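INFO  loader      accepted 1 record
INFO  loader      residues=500
INFO  predictor   begin
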Amino acid sequence: MTLRSRLAVGLVTIAIILVAPLVFAIQSLNNLHDDATQLRDHEFRASLLIGRLRDGLNDLRRDELSLLFAKDTAAVTAMERMNQGIAHVDALVDTLRTYDLRDYPNHVARAMADAAAAAKAEYHVTQLAKPDTSTADSLSQKVFAPAIARADSAAHDAESYVLGQTTKRLESESENITNTKVSSIVALILALVTAGIIAFWLTRTISAPIIDLRHGMRAVADGDLTYRLKIPADRDDEFGQLANSFQEMTRQLSELDKLKAEFVSVASHELKTPINVMIGYLQLLEEGVYGPLDPAKRDVLRTLNVQAHTLSRLVRQLLDVSRFEAGGGRLEPRTVPLEQMLTDLENAFHVLAVQREIRFRVERSSGLPEEVHWDVDRVNEVVGNLLSNAFKFTPHGGVVSLTLETVDDSVLMKVCDTGAGIPPEQLPRIFDKFYQADNQRAARAAGSGLGLAIAKQIVEAHGGTISCESTLGVGTTFSIRLPTHVTRRPTVQRVVAAPV
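INFO  predictor   done
INFO  writer      dumping tokens
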């Protein structure tokens, strides 16, 4: 899946996950709305109808009293109101039968039938030529009033039943609202967590390869052509293509670097012979083999001699670097007294320190081994190179020191100076071939940029490490850590990336 497709799928998935709680909440609100509508159309309307029914029963009680005491036309009017009231109550009872009110509407209907019959009987006995008031009163008290009371009691029971149903439904709806609220919050949290996981996965799938590529490019920029990306080359997205391009780039750079090293080695070797021939003939001229030289010619000869020896030294350094990089530089370790080596170094640089008015000291800590098993010539070359650089960059009145101490089974040597210092951004590259920091204008003499590269190769060939700390305007400290006993072995082999 390509990066674009992966992003599209991830974003669509996040959108769906975030919309899901909203859809759930809307559906829950719709259900609540339906329940509220049902509550309004059933329980509330049934309660209203029962209230109207009980009002109608009360009206019938008043109309029945009028019927007992009315005469002639008033009695006819009272009976008509009585019939209308009974018809109204019967209509309400018929409507109540459409609701789930058990058998309460039927109870009311039967009671109303008894009440209607009693009302008609009362009307007839009160309208006789000689009204039978005692019979009318008996019908009112023993038939009509109890029937109305039964109807009202059934209506009251129906009202209580509706109230109970309403209470249950409201409790159920309240519980549903609480459950909906909790479910919505949980769904939202789950959606956010899931969306966060997907977003984190998308970010990782993009950022991790980018970080890996950045580290790879930095490694290549620092000269490490053996760096291998963690991105699988067989990925079918854009990062897989970048990984293939990166591997091809490092392969080609490795080949070019190898060709460059071989060219430098061959060129240096080929230059060595003609330079030695020139130096030989210059020596013959200086000795007067080809005749006497006047002062002007001797000045020219002296300049040629200096430049020829400088060129010879540069060629030797190039050959050393090429041999070490190709794995051909070998060590010849032997057991030497450490104190003797330090004394020789101290004597060698004492005169230079006096000439340049620089304080030079060699400091030895307690516990140093009496003997070390090193290639003493190579180690002297490294330490001598570092001391030469220290003197080169330290002004008059400055301090150069060589300190030694024991660390585990190793000897730690530090060459410190109070010179110009090295810019911090240039420290990682000072051991590269031909690289020279911006502090060269403070040097007493120009260099070739090969001394530190050779020193690093020699130290690593001994199984040791070399590092540098520096502060501009304060000074520089080179630290060398070498094991006290080094076996005979070649230097670190040059590793060239295999073709992909």
